[in-house]
Amino acid sequence: MNKLLCIVGPTGTGKTAKAIELAQKQPSILISADSRQVYRGMDIVTGKDHPAGFPIFGLDIVDPGDPCSVAVWYEAVMPAIVQAWQEAKLPIVVGGTGLYVKALTHGIETMHVPINQALRNELLSLSIIKLQQKLVQLDKAKFESLNHSDSLNPRRLTRAIEVAQHRTSHPERALASRMGHMDTILIGLKYSVESIQRNKIQERVISRLKQGAIQETQALLLKYSPSLQSISAIGYRSIIRYLAKSCTKQETINTWVADELAYVKRQMTWFRKQPVIWYDIDTYGNTQN
Fold first, then answer.
1. 168 assigned to a ligand binding site
2. Which Gene Ontology terms describe the biological processes this protein takes part in (predicted)?
3. Of 26, 158, 182, 183, which has the highest C-beta tally within 10 A?
4. Does the annotation flag 91 for ligand binding?
């Protein structure tokens, strides 16, 4: 049976370092499951500071101006995973984007519903209320299943409308996972003490600023709109406000850290619903045991 190891958990917990450590002990390949690291040229802010000598699949898949989705990522990494199995290597998936991990472990029914850019352009001008009304017309059950945050999120609403419209147009297509049976293990790394996690994230933010995060953002803004989903990611949006002189550098650090901590909470909410074997890294250190 094909095997798959997933090392998951919130940002800043040393998942990639642990994956590399394990990869040195047996024939393996590494797969990044990080939706912020799929974009080319978005390196410093997203923490794409991986050591040389360990190729990682799932990075630099699209340009920041290109649309991306879990399906795009899935199609990019699956050939490497299949080849690894054929060569008797262990695919180690490492990252904090739960939806990407789920695409591999369980499949996602809507994953292969294609992006409808014409529809997205049409919906772009609609208010939240109009988007909600449109989704209710197409799929009331889906709208009622959304949590409060998603029901007010234009990107989530747009995707739900896109999926609902696709299903209406293609009722004969039943989408299912193509993974088949696997022996899957999910290992999670997390902090049990919030203050330690906050300090770790703040250290990472300050380090990335020293590495050139502001200069990277400036270079991206010369080519891309700040309204793009990619450029409005955590870190970039704080720096964009700083470049617009809307906040001080310290305020930039504070908002970036706060955004990362909020993201950590969302990550943990997702992964706590999955069959993850957890390790508290502030208790077990580097989890060598």
1. no
2. tRNA modification
3. 158
4. no
